[in-house]
Amino acid sequence: MKILVMNAGSSSQKSCLYDLSGNSSGNGKEQLSEQPPQPLWQAEIDWTHQSGVAELKVKTQQQSLKEEIPFESRSPVMAYMLETLWSGPTQVIAAATEISGVGHRVVHGGQQYQDSVKITPEVKQTIADLATLAPVHNPVNLEGIEAIEAILGDVPQVAVFDTAFHARMPEAAAVYPVPYEWLKQGIRRYGFHGTSHRYCAQRTAQLLDRPLQDLRIVTCHLGNGCSLAAIQAGQSIDTTMGFTPLDGLMMGSRSGSIDPGILLYLMRQEGYTVEKLESVLNKGSGLLGVSGVSNDMRSVMEAIEAGNVQAKLAVEIYIHRLKQCIGSMIASLGGLDVLVFTAGVGENAPQIRAGACEAFAYLGLQLDLERNAQSPRDQLISSPDSTIPVLIIHTQEDWTIAWDCWNLLRE
Question: For residue 259, with 0-12 CB atoms within 10 Å meaning exposed, 13-18 middle and 19 or more buried, which class applies?
Answer without folding.
Answer: exposed
